[in-house]
## 1
Amino acid sequence: MLNHHPLTRWLFGYEAQRKRMLKKAPEGPLRDFLSVPFPPLNTPLNCIPILAVDFETTGLDAVQDQLLSVGCVELNHNQIKLGSSYHQIINAKGSLKANNVTIHQITDDQKDQGQPLAEVIEQLLKRLAGKVMLVHFARIERQFLRQACLELYGMAPPFPIIDTLVVAKRRLDKRDLAYDPSELRLLALREKYDLPEHYAHNALNDSIATAELLLAQLSERSKHLSLQQLIL
Amino acid sequence: MDSALTEISEFIQAIPPMDLLPSNIIEQVVKEISICYVRRGQSLPPEGIVAANLYILRKGALSYVTENNELLGKYSEGDICTAFCLNNDDKTKVTSDEDTLLYSINYHNFHQLVSEYPDVLAFFQQTSEQRLNKKMLQVNEDAILNSSLLNSSIAHLCHDPVVSVSPDTSIQQAAILMTEQGFSCLVIVQNDQLLGIVTDKDIRRRCVAQGLGIEQPVSAIMTDDMATIDIKSTAYDALMMMTQKHIHHLPVTAYSQLKGMVTVTDLMNNEGQNAINITSITHKAKSVDELIEISSMIPKLQIRMAKLGTTADHVGKSISAITMAFTIRLIEMAEKLLGPPPVPYAWLAAGSQGRQEQFAHSDQDNALIISNEMQPQHGYWFKDLATFVSDGLAACGFIYCPGNVMATNPQWCQTQKKWSQYFAQWINTPDPKALMHCSTFFDLITVYGESSLLEQVRVKMLKKTQSSTLFIAHLSRNALNLRPPLGFFRDFVLIQDGENKATLDLKHNGIAPIVDLARIYALSEGISSVNTIERLKQAAGTPSLTKASAANLIDAYEFLSMLRMMHQANKLQKGQQPNNYLSPKDISKLEREHLKDAFKVIKTLQDSRQSTY
């Protein structure tokens, strides 16, 4: 609750951080990203510019493991725009572990034909500028993106995030009933909302699936919600 | 394309008419998609969308209702909602029955993407009637390529020239000429006038067997009251005439001038193993057992014709012609047993056989009309005749009519006078029972015997129906009891009140309503034909039916009949009893679209009937 206080927001809020960091940021993709203001917290729900993002990685540790692919799609005015979709495999270092390949389905050959991390992150930052990032289970995307920025630009910018997992969790917590954490998985939540099956573990597909889940979640909420009630 | 979007592309590409687009266009269509989510109970278009859009249902369900909240249709996964494609003043309301995930596509952009694919555009721009017409044009074109009988003109089949002689030619000269030329018949002509025909059989029966001198003129043994057929007729017309008159040679004329000759053999060679073959061997059958054996070929013929792409109209006519041949053969056998008829009479076919729309395994609907000279003691002869023929037909697979519309029923074995009274009574007092009889007995044709008996009754009857608006009103109201479904919802048939049924009754909810409408038009306009397509063609352009509506109904009728024929052929092929119940699971998405169009055509015409009365 502390970060809802106007003073803390002024000190640590994402917009304040953005402005501070903009002054230090080097020329290039990061600076470009930071120069676009984020939407204010009182932005009504259907006016928030959102980019649904999903990563496929070689593991869960942002420092040791690597980013393998990035997928994203825009969500504006409650519409997911497939024309804006972006998907790119990254030419990560080293070879892939077999048990991992079965999950993300990216082979060594595909990976070797991928683009360098710097180019993919530049593309992603371009799309993310001025938008709120939408993910399911924010920890992975946030940590891997921060880590990539640190490696590439020496600093990691703030990312305002909506997490469909947290949106669902907050609702379940309110009921004050015990629940199985597996109910919070993307597939389980989509099933709960009767959303169609999708081909999971492809970064773009998962980002679209996440955006669809958010539309379903929001459809049962008040239209007067603003970014403030949804942000992490 | 980006492999991630393949799933969506595949989903889109499976939906007609998108299946006509190549993958590079599909790829661009996918890029135009905005995914929207509409909560249960909300109306379309989704909030914030004002442009003309088309919507593809990814998940969920939509209902279309009129201004007055009458349900028009329901849509589900994989259906396309075109209600908002054009900014027309259509008052249709669309609401979501379930939480619904939609792929919305800007129609203007879509139109540009598919501008080079007229078949795809047509789907969005044409009316139900136009789409159905297009489908049937294609079906009929295929049928012309595949079939022959109905579409072969006599002009292509007949022999030309015909050997003709003058009436004073001697019988011997005629016989020599026939032998030399290898013809089985000659035409007798005087001053370009057709006088008669002489066949091998006439020389045998009327000359040799009678001991008539061979120097006698050929006119002594010729058949002078002969049937001829116009050169513009089809091979089917020739078959019907030959079957009905029991003849094998038919002179062909053009503007009353002799042009050629067509024989049963010509027709047979044209068709191969077919309806004509069956009717031909039926004529030669010597016992009921032989007929039973021949009857086993009927379902096979129906399967073959259906698989060849023959139109349902053609199949119905062929099967009806065969039933006619069976009936005639059985009557001949009966007359041989019972002796000649005491008074003139005619054997009548009612219902689908009367309309020449019969399929294998349909039930027999028949009746007898007897000259008014009939005396009470003659009743036995006709009862015996009816029993013999009806039992024979049943043995050949034409089951007894469940409604007992059969010549064996004393009620339907009556004099001409009584039949006239029946019709007068039904028309004057159209109670429910009368209306039930109407659908059977207003579709009568003569199969055998004195056809003037029925035709005289028909002339009087049509005069009455034409002037009796009350009767037509009752008939119309009765016909409106059978309504077509609204369409499909998921794998179910959606009916008027929004309920679902597992199967579609093609007969009662599709074909019968059109047959009923055609009968009403015919009776109000005094049209004597009983075949549904004939009735519609003749009613076209009368006050009862516009030309366009007639064409639409014919398309709908042909499409529904074709589906029924294919369905029955599949059943027959599996050795199952054919029926009229079609499961939506067994038909393609495209066929469902065509069916919906056909339903709409029927509904439109039924509604206009309703508002007339």
## 2
Amino acid sequence: MTDATANAAVPMGRKARRSLLEPIVLGVALALIVLFSTTIPGFASLGNLSVILSNSTSLVILACGMAVVVISRGLDLSQIAAMVAGATTFSTLINAGLPAAAALALAVLAMALIGFVNGWLIAFVEIPAMLATLATAMFMTGLFRFGVLRGDYLLILPKSNPAVVFFKSDLLPGLTAPVALMIVALVVTGLVLRFSTTGRIIYGMGDNFQAARLSGLPVRNTIVFVYVYSALAALLAGLVIASASGTVDFRIVTNGSLLFEVILVVVLGGIPLRGGRGGVRNLLVGAALIAVLRNGMTLYDFSTQTQDMLKGVILMAAIFVDNYLNPRDAETDTAGDL
Amino acid sequence: MSRRPIVALENVTKRYGAIAALEAANFDLYPGEIHALVGENGAGKSTLCKLIAGVMPPTEGVLRIDDAPVAFSAPKDASRLGISMVFQETSLVPQLTVAQNMVLGRERAFNSVRKVRNTARQALQRLNFNVDASQLAGALSAAKRQMVEIARAVLNDARVIIFDEPTASLTPEETEHLFDLMKALRRRGVAMIFISHALEEALAHADRVTVLRNGRLMVTGPAADFDRAGLIRHMIGEDLAKRDPTAAARRPPPAAAPVLQVENLRMGAMVNNMSFSVFPGEITGIAGLIGSGRSEAARVVVGHTKRNFGGGRIWLNGREVRYGSPAEAIADGVAYVSEDRKLDGFFETLGVSENIGLGWLAKFGRRRWIAPAPTMRALAQEWRTRLSIRATGSDQPVLHLSGGNQQKVVIAKSLAQQPRLIIFDEPTRGVDVGAIAEIHTIIRDLARSGAGVVVISSYLPEILDLSDRILVAKSGTIAAEFVRSEATAEKVLQAAIH
């Protein structure tokens, strides 16, 4: 019973399935903090910390949605397009004079519909997630740019609108609305994953889809839920970004680097793309690394291109380390046919 | 025989984990001989062949080719020494032409399309096979694919050819042709092994026959020394053949109405007009060879796969049902424990409690929004005690459990749904002896509690041990039905094989 002694040190099973990548990434993030603090004057200040935090709110909110999708063994490439589409819907409606609450309700409905279409294509038409979400992303971007913006890529928000003001206000001294919304997103995601029936099914589906289906779990409905959840997270992130900058900018979709960062946060935190594992803590670790890195590189005055290259290298290194630490299990290759 | 064997196995053992697929086997093959291997599913026939063909290495023992010990690391090492295997599921690349397949792995850096095609065409013609060399392999019928594989083996100057159930997909004429060809190859000194479930075939065409049972070579001898009944006796073992069936007979069959009635079920090529009934409180065993359509029929019943259009009817407690998904079946209390727990049985990285809890949620989670860990753990604790599942804790990942305990978790996952009808597909495959007995007790208790229980098993002793009524499936239909008191291993096997 060597297994028993090995596991006795581990209090409960959640740890047993944690990715080995997580502590490494956490270590790297801490090392970066030390490096930046010593080499960049002003990095370790309270002011910079709040900059790091407020700059990563939308990223973390997006990653909350993406994490739920990835744990269910899916992938949502339409998330950034949904984010911009959601913000556009909301902005257009308040520009047209609708009260903020009604505009918000309509935007939520529109985003739920987008998530539903994604989920329906994947669960019922059985199109691979990557293709289905890529298609809806293209469709949405085209539809909103030409249908709503008439070919333009920028939409200006009314700065004085109470809703816009709310999304960038301070709720409490030191607690801005975006940060509060990020915390809410993290808590809700954590609760859904750990305590809800749907959360259990998401892990089961990600671990073994066929077993989940054969066990009689409502797998198709859960797929739809997951993509609706992702689209709603995208809407929230879109509102935060749009209110902070005062504009909705479609170039976020076309340059693609935000989507890459969201996936980076999820994967670096130790949520494998094959699904079934990970949780909110992994998300925080991945986000910590990306946020610190982003901030440090900006302070070093690296060009966007250099930053992109570095992020690419980091993703490759992470995948390499992960494959090295989690080699394919010989036990799982046992032949069933004797 | 005074000649030197071309292939010799000395005390060869092959283990998968703790289970020996082949144990201390001594086997000789001489040039110019046709050697038949017979035995039940899982007796070790395929393992023996794969060892000779270099598909995998033996765990212990020595393999000699032409008296020299060899250690193959890949099939191509064996093929270099002239050993070819014709697989049951053919190993042709469907996207390549017949000719390209025949030279596959032996191409030079540059290949002339015409030369390759001519070589292939000549090889096929020499064997009198009517196959177009420029056709895509994927477009061929099963029989023609088999022909291409044989032609490939001959083209590779094979001195040893191993056929894994070569006649299973052939028509009678094609079978006749294949055996004529094998006899022609024999005259050229080629040694051949063929696995077959058709015992008459083995007796009529082989020079020698070897019978395997549970990974052991039982007997080898000239085909003329055996008859069908003798072979079957060796396949099932003396003790099983002699066992008194009446001693095992338990209660009389209950007179209740059937839980499940299946009538003329058809699904693809696998299930062909299958009809049977399952009664509450009794264990219905379904025996048969692998590929006889038992699992496929079960999967249609539980809504995993769809039957053909107009492909029969299914009644549950007298009400006609047609499940579109397993979820609907489970809502009605119909559960299925799959034959391959790793593939679609358990959730490997999740703990024992989550595995059992997910099964329970499927039935009782419909109006339940939250499923906190303590609730799931308490549920798991209950099932761990009831089925004596040995794990270090309710959260130990299932992958770290032994095969028997994994299987018990999968069973608990279904039992937590309180099924009225439960179908076990190979419930003790890859499970150690102690756990087999425990799982059998669980299955018997279930039947005693009044549920309808179906056990699908390729292992005859299991079927005979457990079942109150035995159905024998053959080529997608139920070929025979026995009450337990009338069933013997010989009768069941006679009905299951051709």
